[in-house]
Every structure is written in C-alpha cells, then in structure tokens.
C-alpha cells in the first residue's frame, strides 16, 4: 500500500512538471495579438529623392483589435490582427500603404502594444473579475489585484489579506524598479556612445536580470542601426550630389570651349562681313549660337549652386539627427530618473505596511497555507481553450483566466 502511494505521488508530480514545462514554453513564445488589445501605430517614410523623413500623422495613432480580430487603418482598410505579432502587423500596414499610393519606398511602420487585453480571476478570491494585464504578471500578482484569497470573517484574515496585497504590490514595484534601472543604464550608455551594457552591481544575481539586460541591449542595438541607416542615407545623398556637381563642372568646361570657338568664328566672320565678303545671315547664326551657349552656362551654374546647397543641407541634417537623438535620450533619461525616485518611496511604504501588519498580528504571515490552494489557468491556444494547473509563480498572458480553488482541511467541518 505505501509503495502504491509513493508511485502515485511520483506520477502526479511528473504530470504536473510536464504541464508546467509546456506552459512555460508557451509563455516564452512571441506575443500574438488578440481581440481587446490596443496597439499604437506610428508610420514614417524616408523620401530618397529629397533626403527627408515624412511623418504619416493621419495614419499614426491607437487602434483597438475588434471582436472579429481585425483593425481598421486609414487608406489600408480592415487588417487581420488576431494571431499576428506586432512586427507582422507593421509589415502589413507598410506594404498596404506602399501599394495604395504606389510609393517607391515602403513606409516604415512601427507597432507596439498600448494596452493588453485583460486577465480574469475567478473562484476563491475577494474580488473576482477582469483586471488589466501588465508584463511579468504572475498568478500571485493577479490574486493580489483581486484583493487576495477569499477568507473567513475573523479579524486575523483581514490582516493576512493586507499582508498579501502589500507583498504583491511590493513585488510589482520591485520588478518595475529593476526595469527602470536597466533602462537608465541603456540610456546612459547610448549618451556615452557605448556599444555594450554591463550588469549593474545592484542587480547582480537578481532573477531575470540577465533577461532584462538582454532586452535593453537589443533596444540599444535597434536604435543604433536606425541612426546608422539614416546617416548612411544622408551620406549616400551627399555622394550623389557631389557626383552631380562634378558632372556639371565637366559639362561647363565643354560649353566654355564652345563659347570660345564661337566668339573666334564671330570675330573672323564679322571682319569679312564688314568688307562684304560674307552675308550677314552667317553673322546672325553665330551670334544666336553664342547666346545659346551662354544660356547653357547660366543653367549649369544654377544647377551646380543648387546641388551644393543640397549638400550643405544634408550636412545640416546629419548634425540635426545627432543633436535630436541626444536631446531625446536626455529627456527620456530624466523621465526614467524621476520614475525611479518615485518608485523608491512607494516600495518603502509597502515594506512598512507589511512590518506594521506583522507587528500587530505576528501569525498573519503564516495564516495562508499554500497547500490548501490550487490554481488553474484557462488559455486560448491556436484558437482553442486549453486548461492546465499552475503555481503562484506561473507567468500569465493577456486573456488568461485564473481559477483559484481553496480546499479546506477535513476537520474544518
């Protein structure tokens, strides 16, 4: 009998590990859009002919994924968003605008998540219902958003709920603190012109610190490639204009030689015409040809001046590009510093609330017996609902439904 119990326990644990492994692998997949998601779309176009960027303000903005899984974008129409990544949706928008207006260059569309679709918590919690989704949301954090696990009416349970809620909020604030530290590190590195990020000492050994560092490194790489692309485009434009100036200079030399030869012919023919040896129409033809050559010289000088002005403008755009990017980084870093300054007192407040609650009810921290609670997640996978067991630390995805079930001890009745 004992051997059968041990075998059954091992089998149950192996089954749970298999389910959790599958859930973790699913959570690491690239996020796919779904109904009720709100996305922010920004479209800009690099105009090769003028060497400038144009912002498509009439298209940029926030769009909600409808119940049918589509978004409606001006000039493009209804686009299927359900099941797609933000990168796939951005490419579809860019392709649609290019085809709609017959553009030589595809507009650069960028899509990011504005608001995720909510998660739902049901069962033995204080406030079941829908709650906003945020990155790094886990089962325990979702329960804290729902007011904690449902308890009996005694006063000790209220203290326990307060402790659990404060701990959940402290976890959220701590994760945000780590993210802000990494963002500040990346912004400072971009301002300093550094290519790599080093793990800050205060986050060394912190769970998920490596993932946060990798995310910021990827953002920095993408920003650098974008700036390099713009610099390369402007430098290519300068090379093209310089070639045009050189070609115009060669053409001017040719026309000047024609002017010189025509003037010499005109002097010789004029001398002969004064003595009646050549008809006056010959003189008129030479004078007309000389005027045409001189007009060509004027056109060449005008075109050369315009090309040089365009080169100067491209130089100014290069300088402005660097200055604007530095100003943007400075503003973003100041905002990040301000968020960090606001985050610290909020975390201290939550710690103080936990300490105060435990001071008045020392046993409140142990009132919650995790073994009495079980958690189940219902998630849509490939268009079909799937249900699997979860732990408090299991990460959630937008649209998940978390079922919380409390199993009271046998002697409770």
Automatic annotation (TrEMBL):
Q: Which residues form the Polysaccharide export protein N-terminal domain?
A: 26-113
Transmembrane domains' residue ranges: none
Q: Where is the AprE-like long alpha-helical hairpin domain?
A: 166-350
InterPro entries membership: HH_AprE-like (IPR058781), Poly_export (IPR049712), Poly_export_N (IPR003715)
- The name this protein carries in UniProt is Polysaccharide biosynthesis/export family protein
What PANTHER family does the record tag this protein with? Answer: POLYSACCHARIDE EXPORT PROTEIN GFCE-RELATED
- Any signal peptide, and if so, which residues? 1-27
Does the UniProt entry include the keyword Iron?
no
Write out the entry's keywords from A to Z: Signal
Source organism superkingdom = Bacteria
């Amino acid at each position: 009998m004992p051997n059968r119990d041990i075998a059954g326990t091992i089998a149950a644990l192996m089954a749970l590990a298999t389910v959790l492994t599958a859930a973790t692998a699913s959570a690491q997949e690239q996020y796919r859009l779904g109904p009720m998601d709100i996305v922010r779309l920004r479209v800009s176009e690099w105009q090769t002919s003028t060497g400038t960027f144009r912002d498509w303000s009439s298209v940029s903005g926030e769009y909600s994924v409808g119940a049918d899984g589509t978004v409606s974008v001006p000039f493009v129409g209804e686009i299927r968003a359900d099941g797609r990544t933000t990168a796939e949706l951005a490419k579809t928008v860019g392709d649609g605008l290019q085809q709609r207006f017959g553009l030589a260059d595809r507009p650069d569309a960028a899509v990011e998540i504005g608001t995720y679709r909510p998660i739902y918590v049901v069962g033995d919690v204080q406030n079941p219902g829908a709650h906003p989704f945020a990155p790094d949301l886990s089962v325990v954090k979702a329960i804290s958003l729902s007011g904690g696990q449902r308890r009996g009416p005694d006063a000790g349970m209220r203290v326990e709920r307060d402790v659990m809620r404060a701990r959940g909020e402290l976890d959220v604030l701590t994760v945000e603190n780590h993210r802000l530290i990494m963002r500040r590190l990346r912004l400072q590195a971009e301002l300093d012109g550094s290519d790599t990020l080093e793990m800050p000492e205060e986050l060394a050994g912190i769970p998920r610190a490596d993932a946060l560092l990798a995310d910021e490194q990827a953002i920095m790489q993408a920003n650098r490639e974008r700036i390099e692309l713009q610099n390369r485009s402007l430098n290519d434009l300068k090379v093209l204009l310089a070639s045009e100036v050189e070609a115009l200079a060669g053409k001017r030399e040719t026309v000047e030689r024609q002017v010189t030869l025509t003037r010499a012919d005109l002097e010789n023919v004029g001398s002969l015409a004064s003595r009646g040896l050549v008809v006056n129409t010959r003189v008129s033809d030479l004078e007309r040809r000389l005027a045409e050559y001189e007009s060509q010289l004027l056109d060449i000088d005008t075109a050369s001046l315009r090309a040089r002005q365009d080169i100067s403008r491209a130089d100014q755009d290069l300088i402005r590009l660097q200055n604007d990017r530095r100003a943007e980084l400075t503003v973003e870093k100041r905002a990040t510093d301000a968020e960090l300054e606001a985050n610290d007192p909020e975390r201290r407040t939550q710690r103080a609330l936990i300490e105060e609650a435990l001071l008045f009810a020392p046993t409140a921290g142990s009132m919650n017996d995790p073994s009495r609670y079980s958690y189940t997640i219902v998630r849509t996978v490939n268009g079909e609902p799937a249900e699997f067991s979860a732990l408090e630390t299991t990460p959630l995805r937008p649209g998940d439904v978390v079922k919380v079930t409390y199993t009271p001890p046998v002697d409770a009745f």
